[in-house]
Amino acid sequence: MSTSTALQGSTALVTGATSGIGKAVAQNLARQGAKVVLHGRDQARGEALVKEIAAEGGAARFVAADLTDSADTLRLVSEAGDVDILVNSAGLYEFTPTAATDAASFDRQIAVNTRAPFLLVGALAPGMAERGQGSIVIVGSSGARMPAPVGAAYGASKAGAEILTRYWATEFGASGVRVNTVSPGPVHTEGTKAMLGEHIAVLDKTNARGRAGDPTEIAEIVSFLVSPASSYVNGAVLFADGGELSALPA
Q1: Which residues pair with 39 in a beta bridge?
Q2: Catalytic annotation on 154?
Q3: Are 206 and 186 in contact (CB under 8 A)?
Q4: Distance between CA 63 and CA 209 in Å, rounded?
Q5: pLDDT tens, residue by residue, 169-189
Q6: Over 50: is that where the pLDDT of 49 sits?
Q7: Which one of 93, 154, 167, 232 is the catalytic residue?
Q8: Number of folded domains that form the chain
Q9: CA angle, corner 83, sides to 181 and 176, nearest 5?
Q10: Residue 67, domain CATH
Q11: Of 143-147, 168-172, 214-218, where does mean pLDDT reach its minimum?
């Protein structure tokens, strides 16, 4: 567990911060000294996390917003204020076959997984560039590269985030703003448990490590990517999947 002060004095906005990977990321950044703006949809869970972080000596505040709504996403920006770190962790997945995925489902997944990061980066990266520094991390998914019989819309939304990472790294890199993606493979979260139910153990059989990841493991990678330790890493897509993609043909 990171306990350094590498991010002391910085402000971080973490979307999807009230559960799973986003929660672990927010807690880890706070432990390293960042003031964290927590985003989520559930006010009670958000306020509970603020108290958890404060109990550990960290600083956080919560802003509720609906990322499927463009206006509400931009309101989040205005309430967050100037930030030095942006972690787009909020994600929506509806694993259904293509024929069973209606337009509304497709639009929801694109809105949260691709459009919201686009709007947030467009609104926040210019300010980072003016200040001469900033770090942006997209939490992607190995699903962008690892096809499955269901979930094509989800895979497309996460593949879009990968492409945006490379464009943004090129667009903002010379101004001191770095943009990277960490793409987890199977990770034990509340969301995966709700989706798989009693079949949750299947996650531990999908990669070379022989187990699914823990949100804290992904949080450590995010902390590295936003810290000075990764100052020469820009435009990277880092897979944290326990070797899942290594099973694909070269």
Answers
A1: 63
A2: yes
A3: yes
A4: 37
A5: 999 999 999 999 999 988 888
A6: yes
A7: 154
A8: 1
A9: 60
A10: 3.40.50.720
A11: 143-147
